[in-house]
Design brief:
By secondary structure, the chain is of the alpha+beta class. It contains three helices and ten strands, in the order αββββββββαββα.
Length: 193
């Protein structure tokens, strides 16, 4: 009996080593980053939180979050085997998405959509539909990527572009990304007039 008990306890410790959650805290004790690891590599959702948030990192589960909790998130990225794979979502302080990027094995691949502020879109369920005019009113601009490179072929872009032209606005809806939100890019400034 002693051997079985010891073996089971050892097995659970081994499982805990393979599936880990790493949490970074601010100086004030608030969680800032929650990263999931599998076999030593980032795997699943990795989340950057806003300072002074009210999230319990031990119970945090990104796929099951309520919409009001997304106000506490700055960025959520999905990883597979240590590389971004799937969606990366940057959020405005209101909880709506500021940008959604698609990744494939660590490289941008697909649409990179920038949204106007104060939108109420659900970024996790958002699917770009070129024929949906309601979606277009929330989009500020978008780019298309293939294997990490921006696509500049006008025929490919035209096939994915909305039916109506997406224009930049000079109002408060101008996209202004936080400089710390995405480590892949520098600060993006917009021309406000």
């Amino acid at each position: 009996k002693f051997y079985k008990k010891w073996h089971l306890e050892f097995k659970s410790d081994k499982d805990r080593m393979r599936l880990q959650k790493k949490i970074n805290y601010s100086v004030h004790g608030y969680p800032l980053n929650i990263d999931n690891f599998s076999n030593g590599l980032k795997s699943g959702w990795s989340v950057q939180l806003r300072d002074r948030n009210c999230i319990d990192p031990k119970k945090f589960n990104y796929p099951n979050l309520l919409d009001e909790t997304k106000k506490e998130i700055r960025q959520a990225s999905h990883y597979c085997n240590g590389k971004k794979h799937g969606r990366q979502i940057l959020y405005y302080a209101c909880g709506g998405p500021s940008r959604i990027d698609e990744f494939d094995r660590g490289m941008r691949h697909g649409l990179s959509i920038k949204f106007k502020s104060k939108n109420k879109l659900n970024a996790d369920k958002f699917i770009y539909d070129p024929s949906d005019n309601k979606t277009h009113e929330h989009i500020q601009c978008f780019d298309l990527y293939e294997s990490g490179k921006k696509v500049i072929n006008p025929f490919v872009i035209a096939s994915t572009a909305p039916n109506q032209t997406v224009k930049s606005s000079n109002s408060a809806d101008v996209y202004n990304e936080h400089p710390d939100a995405d480590l892949d890019h520098g600060f993006i400034e917009t021309d406000k007039g």
